[in-house]
Amino acid sequence: MRPGGSDAEPIFRHLDDPDVPWQAVKAQRNADGSDAFVHEKWLAFSPDPQYLSLYARYDPGMVVRRHGHLSPHVLFVIAGDLWCSERHCPAGTHIELPLGAAFGPFVAGPQGATLFEVMMGDPRSWGDDPEAFAGALAVQGATALPDPPLEFPPWLEDLRARWET
Is position 60 within any domain? Predict the structure, then answer.
């Protein structure tokens, strides 16, 4: 018997799936006046049990604040590189973030970075150490911009407004 008595079947997605758009989730203004973003494709987003798997693209020099998630989280650097605080993470790096742990700030390398991520529960995040974020932005000569609007599923409230910039 299948767990939960389910008749569920596999769900297949491809990166060019028109039903899975790229979404800008973080934004910054660079020293040269250009804007940089983190873009994500939410490949699987389930309410029960909660989980999210996504494909992410960080523009070169993009800074993401130090944060944790409301569930265990894993990410894998597929291409490019980034810095997680003082740790260099080239392609091939796997990062496990246990529940309650925080990581970052992240700074994408000169070619940007491509990641695959999975949050195994509530995918929303919490943050700490705004000074580290401000310092990482200053090194890049960047300014954080307001979070771009996102379409969250109806069963999940967008909590990003809690963040300090």
Answer: yes
